[in-house]
């Protein structure tokens, strides 16, 4: 009600002045968390006549983002995503965000969205479009649609293009989440051996392959490629990943015992570097628990005791302080 006289005054202004004024009011209200901003935005969008296309796009994008961040039903998200997609001056990332949200609510329009994206951004974006929509379908729990889109995209993509590798990586993730470890290993190995991707991605992909190969009783295949596997492990600096790989390697066969111990040692070293007074208590505590669990897996209980005693009373009190953060 307090805004009504101000807004009414701008209605008499030229279209450009009116639109800019409404945009600034909407942005100001939203920045100050005033719930009225959505009503003002919807009132402006409902006004007859042409509006500034750029400002309209910005408002519709903000309304969609708000529906995504706050509890909203699927129909609200879909309607707001559809409204954004009607705008013509969208950047590719803006378009793909709206397209993903629309697909989650309306999976039957997947091919329509792909065609729209290619029409807007050209055939060079085809693989990125398919990958993003397939990922959205998977995140929404629609695995069949995700697989269908990936099959379509992978078949059409050259193997020397990054888009093919991204789609294959998503397929490997879907297979692994479904417990199809052999298929996940096959997809990961295809990326590593045939795809074109940066060296760090190749290393991560090889570890994904090894993890799934271990789970699907393909230890011999890993041993055949032991040198590449060990090089990939050498590049990993994430201690949880190293500790998990050590546990999986240790649970496969005796041939992997040496690899498991080397991997455990590196992961343990990185974890210990975080168990210090310089680390935030939550980070140090997480590292201590993770390392203790893995040392337990290998029956190295005395090392857990030694680690605990070596921490000293001050560090132990700091890590388990009730007012930590």
Chain-wise SSE layout:
Elements (H helix, E strand, L loop, with lengths): L3 H8 L3 H17 L4 H11 L6 H17 L4 H12 L6 H14 L4 H12 L4 H14 L3 H14 L5 H16 L3 H14 L4 H17 L3 H6 L1 H9 L4 H12 L6 H16 L8 H17 L3 H19 L6
Task: Describe the protein's architecture and organization.
The structure is a single chain. This protein is mainly alpha-helical and 325 residues long. It has helices at 4-11, 15-31, 36-46, 53-69, 74-85, 92-105, 110-121, 126-139, 143-156, 162-177, 181-194, 199-215, 219-224, 226-234, 239-250, 257-272, 281-297, 301-319. α4 runs antiparallel to α5 and α8 runs antiparallel to α9. The mean pLDDT is 85.
How can the largest sheet be summarized? Answer: none
Uncertain stretches: none
Q: Which structural class should the secondary elements be placed in?
A: mainly alpha
Helix content: over 70%
Overall form: flat
Query: How many helices does DSSP assign?
Result: 18
- How many E-type strands? 0
**Sequence of secondary-structure elements:** HHHHHHHHHHHHHHHHHH
Span between N and C termini?
43 Å
Any key phrases for this structure?
325 residues, mainly alpha, 18 helices, single chain
Summarize the structure.
The protein has about 325 residues and is mostly helical. It has helices at about 5-10, 15-30, 35-45, 55-70, 75-85, 90-105, 110-120, 125-140, 145-155, 160-175, 180-195, 200-215, 220-225, 225-235, 240-250, 255-270, 280-295, 300-320.
């Amino acid at each position: 009600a307090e805004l009504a006289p101000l807004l009414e005054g701008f209605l008499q202004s030229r279209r450009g002045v009116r639109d800019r004024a409404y945009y600034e009011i909407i942005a100001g209200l939203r920045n100050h968390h005033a719930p009225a901003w959505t009503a003002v935005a919807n009132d402006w969008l409902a006004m007859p006549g042409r509006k500034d296309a750029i400002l309209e796009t910005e408002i519709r994008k903000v309304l969609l983002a708000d529906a995504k961040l706050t509890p909203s039903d699927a129909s609200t998200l879909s309607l707001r995503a559809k409204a954004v997609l009607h705008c013509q001056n969208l950047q590719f990332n803006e378009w793909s965000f709206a397209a993903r949200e629309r697909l989650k609510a309306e999976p039957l329009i997947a091919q329509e969205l792909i065609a729209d994206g290619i029409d807007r951004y050209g055939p060079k974006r085809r693989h990125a479009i398919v990958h993003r929509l397939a990922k959205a379908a998977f995140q929404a729990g629609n695995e069949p649609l995700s697989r269908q889109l990936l099959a379509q995209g992978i078949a059409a993509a050259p193997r020397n293009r990054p888009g093919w590798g991204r789609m294959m990586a998503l397929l490997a993730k879907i297979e692994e989440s479904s417990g199809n470890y052999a298929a996940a290993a096959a997809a990961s190995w295809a990326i590593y051996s045939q795809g074109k991707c940066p060296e760090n991605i190749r290393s991560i992909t090889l570890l994904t392959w090894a993890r799934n190969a271990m789970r699907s009783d393909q230890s011999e295949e890993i041993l055949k490629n032991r040198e590449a596997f060990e090089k990939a492990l050498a590049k990993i600096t994430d201690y949880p990943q190293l500790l998990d790989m050590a546990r999986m390697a240790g649970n496969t066969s005796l041939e992997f015992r040496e690899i498991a111990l080397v991997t455990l040692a590196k992961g343990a070293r990185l974890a210990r570097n975080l168990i210090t007074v310089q680390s935030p208590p939550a980070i140090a505590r997480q590292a201590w628990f993770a390392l203790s669990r893995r040392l337990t897996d290998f029956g190295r209980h005395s090392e857990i005791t030694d680690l605990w005693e070596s921490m000293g009373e001050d560090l132990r009190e700091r890590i388990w302080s009730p007012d930590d953060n």
